[in-house]
Amino acid sequence: MEAVLPVLACPVCAEKLTRQDGIVGRGVVGCRAGHRFDIARQGYLTLLGPGSRTDTGDTADMVAARQEFLDVGHFRPLTEAIVAGTAGGPVLDLGAGTGHHLRAVVEERGGAGLAVDTSKFAARRAARAHARVGSVVADAWSRLPIRSGSIGTVLNVFAPRDPAELARILAPGGRAVIVTPTPEHQIELRERIGLLAVDEGKADRLADTVGPRFRPLDRITVRRSMRLTRDDVDRLIRMGPSAYHLPDDRRRAAVAALADVTEVTLAVTISVFATPD
User: Fold this and answer.
1) Which residue of 22, 83, 152, 176 has the smallest Cβ count within 10 Å?
2) pLDDT value, residue 174
3) In whole angstroms, what is the distance from residue 255 CA to residue 41 CA?
4) What residue numbers bound the domain in which 76 lies?
């Protein structure tokens, strides 16, 4: 938390946040207007302002499944491409989940990382991702508790984002690295199990949405075939949005009907944008 405190802002009044107790690794932060926020014993900080929501955040089971799946390395080509797309720091991962991709960036690039997610269960995991990663619970659809122009790179992997907020928090020439699925992503499971469909043209619509505030730098497609066991498939389903729509009994029955190993496609687009210098 100490490494990222300089970029944080009060979610109520947007003033700078500072330590209020002088105890490293625990305690309270606050602003000069008197708003105070406790650092949880698990190491994360909750910065929710008026009207903020967290009811759409991932559950404890979704977060656990994500960590188990990612730690095996099935998404390693995606993580490597994300690292390659980053530039300066500090690096903020908006919708960071467990902090898996952010940890790789910090390990490769150095500097500090800030994991932001609406789920307290994700924030707990992200707080342990790396010694130089701070973890914050915040609402992606509200004003982010981040100081304007303080971030070098924003990561956004399969998560919601407000382009106006990304432009506000990024420094001049800062980068936004945004990952969206293609219609091929996990298509085998969509056809066999009925997972949520992916719309055509996500990357093009993204470019149209962020266009007024950013200039495009690069667009990279990552496509690989993953060999997944039944347990891998079960975790992959549980960690994503289909977990909200597929009842547990149907999921277990569908996974049990699969072969011992299933070829599943990883297919995503990594769009890299920059703010004006």
Assistant:
1) 22
2) 95
3) 37
4) 5-274
Res 218 pLDDT > 80: yes
> pLDDT by residue (tens digit) across 113-155?
999 999 999 999 999 999 999 999 999 888 999 999 999 999 9
- Residue 29 dihedral angles phi and psi, to the nearest 5°: -120, 160
How far is CA 161 from each of CA 20, 116, 230, 276, rounded to the nearest angstrom?
31, 11, 32, 19
Cα torsion for 118, 53, 167, 171, to the nearest 10°? -50
Strand partners, 91: 113, 153
Above 70 in pLDDT, residue 18?
Answer: yes
DSSP assignment of the chain, as one string?
A: -TTTGGGBB-TTT-PBPEESS--TTSEEEE-TTS-EEEEPTTS-EE---TT---TTSPPHHHHHHHHHHHHHTTTHHHHHHHHHH--SSSEEEET-TTSHHHHHHHHHH-S-EEEEES-HHHHHHHTTS-TTEEEEE--TTS--SB-TT-EEEEEEESS---HHHHHHHEEEEEEEEEEEE-TTTTHHHHHHH-PPP--TTHHHHHHHHHTTT-EEEEEEEEEEEEEEEHHHHHHHHHTSGGGGTS-HHHHHHHHHTS-SEEEEEEEEEEEEEE---
Say how many C-beta atoms besides its own lie within 10 A of residue 120's C-beta. 18
In 3D space, the residue among 23, 25, 45 whose CA is nearest the CA of residue 35 turns out to be: 45
Strands 27-30 and 36-39: antiparallel
CB atoms within 10 A of CB 107: 14
Number of domains, the chain: 1
User: Across the chain, what does the average pLDDT equal?
Assistant: 90
Which pLDDT belongs to residue 22? 57
